[in-house]
Design goal:
Blueprint: H1 2-15, H2 23-58, H3 62-68, H4 80-88, H5 91-121, H6 128-140, H7 147-157, H8 163-186, H9 191-199, H10 204-232, H11 236-241, H12 250-255, H13 265-285, H14 287-299
Helix pairs in contact: 2-13, 4-13, 5-8, 5-10, 6-8, 8-10, 10-14, 13-14
Pfam family, one: BPD_transp_1
InterPro entries: MetI-like (IPR000515), MetI-like_sf (IPR035906)
Keywords: Cell membrane, Membrane, Transmembrane, Transmembrane helix, Transport
Length: about 300
């Protein structure tokens, strides 16, 4: 009787085909995890080294930097570099210009990409492959090849030295990339879903707003974040189209710290830190939105 009762237990253990983990194997796995953790920490420290160096030199005086170099700890924390930067640059104005330009480009570029990709990805217009190739080519062109027509076009339309000249240019450029991306995503939307909405009496705009937009909302949120950061860091085209100091963005304001024969390195570090903080705050605010938008395709 006892043999019969013990037999199922033996069979159930054999059916798993998983040998017991020995203490030696358990210690080996624990050591491997520690090695991976140490390597990840060293890699993170290597990635954060430029930021740490930036913060370190932003709180030094000019004399401290000249005497001890960029790698030494500051003798005492000083805000002299920040004061010098704010005396040279109208930081609040440059910050406002950057926020307005980047925000408008992010929203308008995403909206324009949504509308154009709706016609290409779902409307199935003729020659969609060639149209997408043109949009892709537009994103690959160097900005130096576009600057002359953009400069004379801004002068002819009276938009030179206004934020709208940069907003219009980058809205079109960012929307070209967004159209290329969204049109391929829209082509994966089931046609049965669109046909069901059409049978219910929904028009094209209604289908776009009530069916397509909710499906693409995570992808659109990622585009908004990317367009904002990409436009924030743009330098060459805003440098040419925004020569007036009242319309300059933060990257252009940083360039004004470089003199013909000398550079105020501590003030440059302080300005770089101040220009980095808004994008860092932006990423922290939309971090969850960005992670959800990137992983939603893998989850589905």
């Amino acid at each position: 009787m006892s043999a019969l009762l013990s037999q199922p237990a033996t069979n159930s253990g054999a059916g798993t085909n998983q040998p017991p983990v020995t203490p030696r194997e358990r210690r080996g796995r624990g050591a491997a995890r520690w090695v991976v953790l140490v390597l990840a920490g060293l890699f993170a420290l290597l990635m954060l080294a430029p930021l740490l160096l930036l913060v370190l030199n932003a709180f030094k005086t000019g004399a401290d930097y000249s005497a001890n170099g960029p790698l030494a700890l500051p003798e005492h924390l000083s805000v002299e570099a920040f004061q010098q930067y704010l005396e040279i640059v109208d930081y609040p104005r440059a910050l406002l210009n950057s926020v307005v330009i980047s925000g408008l480009v992010a929203l308008l570029g995403t909206a324009l990409a949504l509308i154009t990709s709706y016609g290409i990805g779902i409307g199935r217009i003729r020659g969609r492959t060639w149209i997408l190739a043109v949009f892709l080519l537009a994103t690959m062109l160097p900005q130096e090849s576009l600057i002359y027509p953009l400069f004379y076009g801004a002068q002819a339309t009276g938009l030179f030295n206004t934020v709208w000249s940069v907003v219009i240019v980058f809205t079109v450029l960012q929307a070209a990339f967004g159209t290329y991306l969204l049109s391929s995503v829209m082509s994966t939307i089931p046609q049965s879903l669109l046909e069901a909405a059409a049978l219910d009496g929904a028009g094209r705009l209604r289908i776009l707003w009530s069916v397509v937009f909710p499906v693409l909302r995570p992808t659109l949120s990622v585009l908004v974040v990317f367009f904002f950061v990409w436009t924030w860091n743009e330098f060459y085209i805003p440098l040419v189209l925004l020569s007036d100091q009242s319309a300059q963005t933060i990257p252009i304001a940083l360039a004004t710290l470089q003199g013909q024969n000398s550079i105020n390195l501590t003030a440059l570090n302080a300005g770089s830190l101040l220009s980095l903080l808004p994008t860092l705050v932006f990423f922290l605010i939309f971090q969850r939105t960005l992670s959800r938008g990137v992983t939603v395709g893998a989850v589905k």
